[in-house]
User: Fold this.
Amino acid sequence: MFENLSNRLSGVVKTLRGHARLTEANIQDALREVRMALLEADVALPVVKSFINDIKARALGKDVIGSLTPGQALIGVVYEELVKLMGEHNDALNLAAVPPAIILMAGLQGSGKTTTTGKLAKLLKEKQRKKVLLVSCDVYRPAAIDQLKTLAQQLEVEWYPSDVSQKPEAIALAALDYAKRHFHDVLIVDTAGRLAIDEQMMAEIKSLHASLNPIETLFVVDAMQGQDAVNVAQAFNATLPLTGVVLTKLDGDARGGAALSVRNVTGKPIKFVGVGEKLTGLEPFYPDRMASRILG
Ligand code: GDP
Assistant:
């Protein structure tokens, strides 16, 4: 998805050949290429600007040592800065709460919230042997409630029934009570999403958050949304104390810039990435692996 960046950078490696150190003059073209590639990949402009400045500051005057060519030295700096931009290391899910640990799922409709809820349940059940309860608080779309129920049945994970006549908060609190009485380790609360951000939706999820006090509040965002992903992330981050981000649909032809911007604009770690429609399509996010992928 970052073919452009790796292609552009390999051109840069050639142009820098023969120089013994990186200077303002000789890295100018290289930085222009990096900048263009990032913008083409939908990375938000302010993020691109500060990224380029950081690379420049670190690369300038760098002596090229050993067998490295100046181009390789610059790519080394780009790699390290990409890793830094995406948060350095993997942030694991935090379940250190008096059981049940509550995970609240937030995001727009179609972002992949319900699918991710199922994927997380599978991971927690199979990899961590957790007893998981799922509940849907999407009282606006009966289909969403059914979708979660179907996923739960498929995964052989328990779900707490809800219907559209109930209030989201009442559903969530009843599910929490049930989870406590039945010794569930984790309760994952799927919430309503709208096609766009609106005040009512934000107020609703805010009050759900206040009454549940979840240990994890995950913001699910579609990487295919490009620049828009950043705006939506900012709006959710301003409303809710998010603890992490799940970036979905990275398997598609998303230009991937969201992966670079979302962490930067929210300050919240990307904990997982969605890499397919199937329930196995969820992976922990590793900034170093992503940076390697980006650089090709
Ligand atoms: P919600 O409205 O946020 O709950 O979104 P859904 O979970 O219903 O997902 C919307 C669509 O995106 C569905 O068709 C999912 O199969 C699809 N989807 C979700 N996550 C991924 C992913 O990581 N990759 C791909 N390719 N599709 C996904």
